Amino acid sequence: VDVLSDFDSTFAPKLRELAEKHDFLIFEDRKFADIGNTVVSQYAGGVYKIADWADIINAHVVPGPGIVDGLKTVGKDKGAGLLILAEMSSKGTLARAEYTEAAVEIATAHPDFVIGYISVSPASWKGDIGAAGTGTMIHMTPGVQLAKGGDSLGQQYDTPEVVIGERGSDVIIVGRGIYKAQDPAAASAQYREAGWAAYLKSIET
């Protein structure tokens, strides 16, 4: 929401009205990344008051488990859910290996608030906890377009077939493939169909 240039107090009520009318959840891709006390203020207050309208948020765990503790004091009673950023799709990311393992440990300590992960290749995770197909955590993967590629700033794109079928994710996250399309509504439908087809294929094997 902090990239919107025309945000005002009418934005959240209108968005919530649309969510209720069309039965969808609002995921605010805020990527909280500070100490517990700070993220409480960022989540509950400020200009955006994210906790009043977002169903799902996400956070890095670089600060340690306190960030989850802080966000949970605000979001749990509102019925919100948290996704832990365990991996990222950008080139050279440090969110891998030991960091990913630590993220899983923190996430599994909060089953009453953490609903899953932002992950890239959960099928390759080690162990029975957190890996794709185990437990109840959702895996959501960014960096998805209909053709494999990348941009000049290090983002790397994979297709729904690869993300779901080969890497074991549950949900695709699409940004520029939709909002920069000439017809965003049509593009959204195309990605939805591609994601669903990839999922159906993945459960056939």
Please tell me about this protein's structure.
The chain has about 200 residues and is α/β, with parallel strands linked by helices. The chain is about 35% helix and about 15% strand. The protein is built from seven helices and eight strands, in the order αβαβαβαββββαβαα. Strands 1-2-3-4-5-8 form a six-stranded parallel sheet. The chain has a two-stranded antiparallel ribbon with strand order 6-7. The chain is globular, with a radius of gyration of 17 Å. The termini are far apart.
Beta strand count: 8
The first-to-last residue Cα distance is: 39 Å
- Given helix and strand content, the structural type is alpha/beta
Helix content: 25-40%
Poorly predicted runs are none
Basic shape: globular
Oligomer status: single chain
Mean of residue pLDDT?
93
Major sheet strand order: 1-2-3-4-5-8
Strand count, sense and barrel status of the largest sheet are: 6 strands, parallel
Give me a quick take on this structure.
The protein is an alpha/beta fold and 205 residues long. It has 7 helices and 8 strands, in the order αβαβαβαββββαβαα.
Summarize the topology:
Blueprint: H1 11-22, E1 27-32, H2 36-44, E2 56-59, H3 66-75, E3 81-85, H4 98-108, E4 114-118, E5 138-141, E6 149-150, E7 156-157, H5 160-166, E8 171-172, H6 176-179, H7 184-204
Parallel strand pairs: 1-2, 2-3, 3-4, 4-5, 5-8
Antiparallel strand pairs: 6-7
Features:
205 residues, alpha/beta, 8 strands, globular
